[in-house]
Design goal:
Length: 224
């Protein structure tokens, strides 16, 4: 898949643009109206060594991941990407004086990257039911591209299909399907469904090395 289908892209842009006109700079504009945004970013970031690292945030919204990053690490570089111009304009205004933070208005799948980033995250990008594409194909394209340009790993969150109710416009991913995609990239992965009952985060680490005498991931030993 090369980019989000134009019809779906326009639906997403219109939805968030209208919310921005209604709510302005607020989590409600992004559809996060229950005060859980900080929890999501913590789940995405907490398992990486962030010091001195470059972070690429796909579907960055207002760049609010920086609020969590600043609590976790002193030195980092952040690049946010989003397809909604009004969100990017607001994000650039909010972080105008911070040289380590920048934003790009672009479709991640269409953008050509000249370098890798250490850690790539995404929150909420996969929550909408596409009309002109298969959601799992869309997710796989995102994960594959992100993993290919990541040095340390990727972390994405998803709505779970292990729920009692689903809206018509939302897409709820099956955790097993997402795990299978992750295992095609690495054996060193993590699925976290211990923070909210209806959402989960998948982390895929690039370093899957281990010694045959102890069969413990090198990365895990280095964390101790």
């Amino acid at each position: 898949m090369i980019g989000m289908p134009e019809k779906d892209k326009n639906i997403v842009i219109d939805r968030y643009s209208q919310r921005y006109e209604k709510y302005g700079y607020s989590p409600k504009t992004l559809g996060w109206d229950k005060g859980k945004q900080d929890i999501r970013y913590k789940m995405l970031l907490e398992n990486f060594n962030l010091e001195g690292k470059s972070i690429l945030d796909i579907g960055c919204g207002f760049g609010d991941a920086n609020k969590t990053l600043k609590k976790l690490v002193k030195n980092y570089t952040y690049i946010g990407i989003d397809i909604v111009e009004k969100l990017i304009i607001e994000a650039k205004k909010n972080y105008a004086n911070q040289t380590n933070i920048s934003f790009i208005l672009e479709d991640f799948l269409k953008l050509k990257f000249e370098k890798n980033y250490d850690i790539i995250i995404s929150s909420g990008v996969f929550n909408f039911k596409l009309q002109e594409a298969d959601n799992y194909e869309f997710i796989k394209s995102f994960m594959d591209k992100a993993f290919n340009i990541a040095n340390d790993g990727i972390a994405f969150d998803f709505l779970s299909d292990k729920v009692d109710f689903q809206y018509k416009h939302t897409f709820h991913s099956n955790p097993t399907n997402i795990l299978n995609m992750a295992y095609n990239m690495s054996r060193n992965i993590m699925l976290k469904n211990n923070y909210m009952p209806f959402e989960f985060t998948v982390v895929v680490f690039k370093d899957q090395s281990f010694l045959t005498d102890d069969t413990i991931f090198t990365r895990f030993k280095n964390e101790k």
